[in-house]
Structure formats: structure tokens, C-alpha cells
TrEMBL record:
The protein's required cofactors: FMN
Bias kind Basic and acidic residues: ranges: 113-126
Domain of life where this protein originates: Bacteria
Name under which the protein is recorded: NADH:flavin oxidoreductase/NADH oxidase
Species the sequence originates in: Bradyrhizobium sediminis
Length: 390
């Protein structure tokens, strides 16, 4: 049996992850006025039951104006605590850790669901709070010529927003989450403050690099007031945005955030322009892993790697090479929610079905023990080469 890093536990502050596999935040575009539905329970539930150590609920918006689409989840009011708590309870029952990403879409708010056509939403009579949903950003600069110019935030509104992130952290704690991630990537509000391209403010939140980093730094401080000492805090960054913000800036920021109580940088890329590679338009395994390695090495902080990590041995190698501490598997886990169990089998981990609930793990374990061999459907069948059937 193989000892792997992927399936070894990791303790961050007071929270123990049973393995290094993370389901990264993935919007479901299925909330109703910010409230989770049964879809969210099923979605988080299947990943938790599939054996991941940490399941991070999608970017959940700290204020109404921050909703990207009509289907975004919300956490801007205490009324969201209880329904989000239902997801937490189910994730924990599967012996996984429940995380949530806090976000704000900034100038990319009020958009279509991706499968309804990229770009800004068209006004319809059923949206009763259209004006309150006007996109806001550090400066009145449109994302691209496809998008409307946002309204620039007043200085006092920036201060209020910092507190909104803090209040959202309080609600995440009340709902029972054990890991919190701040969305600082993909061209959304926090990233818009970091980038010179979208931030041309002349107050203390714009101009120099230190000023552009002030918003996320204050947000982190406000979050830490409410987010308990023993619980981990992650920040997702577009470590390279192909528009002036890169690994050196990210590592400098990570060092500052570490002093403010951030434990892990989740290393993504792109989003401040339409051409950058959030979802890896170039087809290349591990395309963002070098960004994670850079931040880990230069900022001396734990990192999470994400982006076209498809195979168990690929994930294991990233950990062994010291390029990351955690592995996020996004679209591949949409393809195979039982990815952790599958990876454990392929890596030869002892008790590959121990990670999953007995409702199915027990049966798969007994099938495995019989030894007459049934290959999982994610392997080559071997049926057409009888010598290979095991
Ligand atoms: C359907 C979908 C929704 C996503 N929603 C979010 C999100 O809420 N927050 C976020 O930071 N990234 C989001 N992402 C990006 C993923 O977290 C991940 O970084 C990206 O898919 C690359 O990893 P992968 O190649 O393993 O899929 C989303 C991706 C997908 C496919």
C-alpha cells in the first residue's frame, strides 16, 4: 500500500482536513434571491460524500450589489445563516470540512448566467431591485466595451464595504463553517482594487501598490475580528492577471496578509480582462501550479493549487514537488464527484473506500476484497484484452 501526501491529513490552526483534496468554490447560479435551494444541498453533499477533505461553497455575496447573476448566493443578512447552516450540517455529517467563499462581483455584477450568454444582464420587469443592483467598483471604468461603466464607490462606501465583509464572516461563523475564503481574484471587486487598470482612485485606496492593497488588507482585518482564531482563512488571488499584476505583487501581498491572519493563498489567475485564463483556455495540465509554487516559496505561506488538475498521480506529484499544500479539483470533480475515492484506488492507498460514507463505501470495499476484480468504470475495461482483466 502506498503512503501518499494527497491522502495524509493536514491541520491548519484548529481544523483537521482528512486529506489534501479541496472542492473549490463553483457558482451554481441556482439561488433564489440569494437563498440556497435543494440544489445546493445536493451539490455540496455529493462532493462531501465523495471523499474530499474540504468542500468550499461558491462565492457568496457580502452585499446585494455584489451579486454576479440572479442566481448568486447571498450572506448580506442574518436571514441567510440558517439555510447556509443546513449545507454545513450535511457536509460535516459526511466527515468533510465545510468552507465558504465570500465574494463581491464589483463591476462584473448584474450579468447573465454563463449558459444564457456571457455579459451584462438585460433589464426585465421581474427584477424589482434593478437600481439597487447597479454595479460598483473602485473607479468608473468598464470591464470591457461589452460592459457598462460601474459607479465609482464613494470613500465612505468603501469603508462600509469593509465592514460588510466582516459582518459576512460573522454570519459564516454562525452558520458553522470552519474554513473561510475571501475572493480576491478573477477581476471581481477585490481584484479591481488591486489592479491599476481598474483602480484609478486618488484617495488612500488607489495609486501606489500599498494603497491598492489597502482594501483587501482592511477586509482581512475586519473578517478576522469575527472569524475565530482557531479557524483557517484563505484568500484566492489571480496571482498572474496578464494585465500588470503578477506573482511578485501577489507574493508581496501574501506576506502582508499572512501577518493579518491569512493561512492559505489559493492561487488562480486572470479575469481582469476578457482574455485571461481563469478556466485555462490553453489546454495544459496544471497551468496555474507554477503560480502556487512561486507564492509558496516567496511568501512562505501555504498555498492551494488549482486549474486542470485531473489525475491523482498528477495531484500527488504537485504536493511531493513542494508546489502546493492543498489541491483543488474543480471541473474534474463535476465530472466525477467521487474523484477522491477514485484517486485513492489508482494511487494504491490502503482502504480507498474508507473516505466515503458506508452507504456506498462498505459495498465497494466488499466488492474490492472478493478479488475477482471489477475495474472501476473510470479505468480501461480490459474486456477486449482478457489477459489484462483483473
Ligand atoms: C461552474 C464553475 C463555477 C465557478 N465558480 C467560482 C466561484 O464561485 N469562485 C471562484 O473563485 N472560482 C470559481 N470557479 C473557478 C474554479 O474554482 C476553478 O478555479 C477553475 O474551474 C479551475 O479549476 P479546474 O480546472 O479544476 O476546473 C468556477 C468554475 C466553474 C467551472
Amino acid at each position: 500500500m502506498t503512503e501518499t501526501l494527497l491522502f495524509s491529513p493536514l491541520t491548519i490552526r484548529g481544523v483537521v482536513l482528512k486529506n489534501r483534496i479541496v472542492v473549490p468554490p463553483m457558482h451554481q447560479y441556482s439561488a433564489i434571491k440569494g437563498f440556497p435551494t435543494d440544489w445546493h444541498l445536493m451539490n455540496a453533499g455529493k462532493f462531501a460524500a465523495g471523499g474530499a477533505g474540504l468542500v468550499v461553497v461558491e462565492s457568496t455575496k457580502v452585499e446585494r450589489r455584489g451579486c454576479g447573476t440572479l442566481g448568486d448566493l447571498g450572506i448580506w443578512d442574518d436571514k441567510f445563516i440558517e439555510p447556509l447552516g443546513r449545507l454545513v450540517k450535511f457536509i460535516k455529517q459526511q466527515n468533510a470540512v465545510a468552507g465558504i467563499q465570500l465574494g463581491h462581483s464589483g463591476r462584473k455584477a448584474r450579468a447573465n448566467r454563463p449558459w444564457e450568454g456571457d455579459g451584462p444582464l438585460k433589464r426585465t420587469p421581474d427584477i424589482d431591485d434593478w437600481d439597487e443592483w447597479t454595479p460598483v467598483a473602485p473607479s468608473a471604468i468598464a470591464h470591457s466595451d461589452k460592459w457598462p461603466a460601474p459607479r465609482a464607490l464613494e470613500r465612505s462606501e468603501v469603508k462600509d464595504l469593509v465592514q460588510a465583509w466582516g459582518e459576512a464572516a460573522r454570519r459564516a461563523q454562525a452558520a458553522g463553517f470552519d474554513v473561510l475564503e475571501l475572493h480576491g481574484a478573477h477581476g471581481y471587486l477585490v481584484h479591481e482594487f488591486l489592479s491599476e487598470r481598474s483602480n484609478q482612485r486618488t484617495d488612500e485606496y488607489g495609486g501606489s501598490e500599498a494603497n491598492r492593497m489597502r482594501f483587501i488588507t482592511e477586509v482581512t482585518e475586519a473578517v478576522r475580528v469575527h472569524w475565530p482564531e482557531h479557524k483557517p482563512l484563505f484568500v484566492r488571488l489571480s496571482v498572474e492577471d496578464n494585465a500588470g499584476w503578477g506573482p511578485e505583487q501577489s507574493a508581496r501581498l501574501a506576506k502582508i496578509l499572512k501577518t493579518k491572519g491569512v493561512d492559505v493563498i489559493d492561487c488562480s489567475s486572470g479575469g481582469i480582462t476578457d482574455v485571461a485564463p481563469i478556466l485555462g483556455k490553453e489546454i495544459k495540465y496544471s497551468y496555474q501550479v507554477p503560480l502556487s509554487e512561486y507564492v509558496r516559496r516567496h511568501a512562505d505561506i501555504m498555498t492551494m493549487a488549482v486549474g486542470l488538475i485531473i489525475h491523482g498521480d498528477q495531484a500527488e506529484q504537485i504536493l511531493r514537488d513542494g508546489q502546493a499544500d492543498l489541491i483543488a479539483v474543480g471541473r474534474e470533480i463535476l465530472n466525477n464527484p467521487n474523484w477522491p475515492m477514485d484517486a485513492a484506488l489508482k494511487l494504491g492507498v490502503e482502504g480507498p473506500f474508507r473516505n466515503v460514507p458506508p452507504q456506498f463505501g462498505w459495498w465497494l470495499g466488499t466488492r474490492d476484497k472478493r478479488g475477482f476484480g471489477t475495474r472501476p468504470s473510470t479505468w480501461q475495461s480490459g474486456l477486449h484484452d482478457p489477459g489484462k482483466v483483473s
